[in-house]
Structures are given as structure tokens and as C-alpha cells.
Design a protein that fits this description.
The protein is mainly alpha-helical. Among the domains are: 176 residues, no CATH class; 121 residues. It has 22 helices and eight strands. Helix 2 packs antiparallel against helix 15. The termini are far apart. 27% of the residues are buried.
Amino acid sequence: MTFSAIDGPSFAAPSGRSPEPISPKPTTLDASERERSTQSGIARLPFTRFVLATLAAIERTWSSIWFQDVPTTPLEIVRIGIGAAVLFHFTMATPFLFDLWGDTGWVPPNFAHVYIQAPWMQSVFFYFTDPWQWIAFHGLFLFCCAAFTVGWRTSWVKWIVLLGQISYDHRNLTIVYGADSIIACLLFILCLAPAGRAISLDRVRAVRAAKRKNLTATLPPYTSPWAGACTRLIQLQMAILFFYSATDKLRVDEWWGGDAIWLATSTYEFYHPVLLHLLAQHYWMVNIATYATLLIELAFPFLIWQRATRPYLLCGAVFLHLLFGILLRLIYFSFAMIVGHMSFLYPDWLSRLGAWWKHKIGGMEMIYDGDCGFCVRSMAWFLAFDGLAQIRVRNFRTDPSPIVSNASLQSALFTVLPDGRALPGFEAYRYVVIRVPGLWWLVPLFYIPGVSRLFGHSIYNWVAANRSRLSAIGK
């Protein structure tokens, strides 16, 4: 008997033996397996959903902690403070450049390497051979510190500031202390951050470019999840500093006994005769100051993260370092710490402060000649510094003013005050610059007693009379 295989050759059964019947597998086994598989899948489904939900919750929590889409304003305040501190510090050290960091100064190169603990602790000063190289680098460093402070070309000058800070530190480790390490850490984080996007000349340049095309144009505030991450890094830096400072103090018996502040103020380094006399007469103040310092430093790392307690902890930390700066004369260290604490400022706090200032000052309208190219460019430059948008503008050529006549506006710019008065020319600018924070750097030019008005009116009148010629030059 012959059987035919599906899509295969035929074969024959052996003679004298009947073929065994081929029977299918019991259907009851298939049904049982399918039932167990279904029950197992049903059992695994809630667990899988639980795992996925847990992972999603962890991801959301992680993102809310590290990657909030926030403005860079707190970072910019830290940038300005740290830049100003470093600029002042090293400017004052300029007369001692070769004494502190030169090859023939206090610490010769072979002696400096004794303090170097790792090959990555480098300094550009190790590779200088001629005095002009020290002078050139020091000048470049101070220039970049100034640019970093005002936010000009921040994306690259910040790296030179960091390089300089590290180079000065590693070249002479005998004069380095906690403030230098704190500033170096904050500079490193600021180099990673998108600094320079607000309260900076970089922001002014971007706004000015937009207003050159349309004076009423506005740029939205820059926000970024990475800005939130870098802000959090600085905050952690400050919280950890307080935590370790407090735990180190707890190992000293004088802090437990309440006498630590007395010992600090009676040492040669921090001796303050007036303060010491006051504390000797009222020793209870020593105990309160000692335990209050411990309380602030212990509470800060844990309570600074809650919105309800942050204002109190922030005020306590700032007050503590103000006392360190004034009474113990740790000015550089105290200023660096206070600036670092500014990273805890909520952006909405700063927004409310700006709104309060804007409401307090009242509205201002500047009326200009839209047919004058020089006038438009000047207004674009002027408005670029108005970060709070306090100034309204009006082109009298297309939108005549109900307060100032067109004839008057053809000879001078006017500022309309909240009470309806209108100030012309130099007085218009003089009124505005002291009321717009972004223009405060111009206040000395407009408010020098007896000089500003004497020369200011003449200069403005000359510019107004020659604005057509100036418009042609700027094209």
C-alpha cells in the first residue's frame, strides 16, 4: 500500500504488516495548555502594568527634580555675583602678580609641585617663561571676568574664567582656601549651564536685533530643562556644604557647650575688640549665636527644598553669612556663599518683584519719529535694556499723540509720564534711565550734579539737529 506525503515522495508499507493508524493529539491537552497560558497571561498583565506605571512615576519624579523647564534668571544672578567677586579679587591682586604666581615669587615652581596631588592639577603658569606672558594672561583673564559679569559673549568667556581660576589656584595652593574651591565649583557648573540668556549683554543684543526690525517686537524669556538641572546642581552644592559644615561642628565639644563663637572671636585671626567686649558682658549672646548657627546649618539641607520653609531658611543663611563677613571679616567667602544661595530664588518670586516695580513706577510712553532711521536705531538700542517692558513706544508719524503735537515731535523725542505730563529731549531720557533697572548703568551720565544738564541738553540738541545726517551714516 502506498501513501503519498504532502509535497514529498511516496513510500510503501512493509509487506505483511498493516500500517498503524495515525491519530491526532488529544484535543483536551491543547485546551488545557491554552487555558493555563491564558490564566498566566492574565496574572502577568497587572504585574506588567504595575512595573510600567512605577517606572513612569520614577521618570516623572526624576524629571521634576532635575529637568524642570525653568528660566535662567537665578543662574544669571549667580553668574553676575561670582563674576564680580572674581574680577574684584584678582584685580586687587594685580600688583602682586609675580609675588604670588611668578617663578621668582613666594612659591617657586619646584616648590609648588610639592602641593600638587594629581597630574590633572595643572596651571597655565607652569608653562610660562617670560614676564609678558603672565601680564598678557592676567589681562585677558580680567577682561573675560568683566565680560562674564555683564554677560558679553558668555558662551566662550566663561571657560577662560574657569581656566584662569583653576590656574591661579593650582599655581599657589598655599593661599587657597574654602572660598576659592566654592567659586571654582560654581564656575564649573555655570560653564555647563546655558548662562547669558537673561540679564546680560547677550540678551540685549538678541532683543536689539529683533527690535531693529520692529520696535514693538518681544522675545519670550529663555527656558530650558537643562537650566533647571544646572540650577539644581548649584542648590545641591550649597546644601551639601551646609550639611558637612554642621556635621563637622558637631564633632567639636565647644559647639555642644555653646562656646564656639567666643573662641572664634577671641582668636588672633578673627579678633574683634568691640564685639569681644560686648560678648564678655552678655555671654548669653555667645550661646544663642553658637546654637543658632548649628540650627541653621543643620536645618538648611533638609528644609530648603520645601516652598513653605524656603524663605525662612534662605533669609537665615544669608543673615548668617552677612555676620561672618562683617564680624569675622570673611568677606570673600561670605559673598560667594550668599551668591550661591541665590540659586534658591524661585523664578516666580523674581517675576513678582519685577511686576511690583513696574506697577510702582507706572507706565511710560516714549514718542519718536518713525521716519528717522537714527531715531529708530537709537530706540531699538534703548529698549533692548528694558527687560521689564516698562516703556511703551509710539511712532507719531503713524499714530499721532493726543498729548504732544506733531510739530513739537519733529524737533525732539518726548516721554509721557503717568500723570500726563510730557518731557522733551534730554529730560525725557533722564526721567527714564533712573526708573528702568536695565538702564541704571547710564545714571551717572544723566545725574552728575551740575554737569549732566549743563552738557546733556547741548549734546542732545546737536544730535537732534543732525539726525538726518546720522541716519545716512548708519545705513
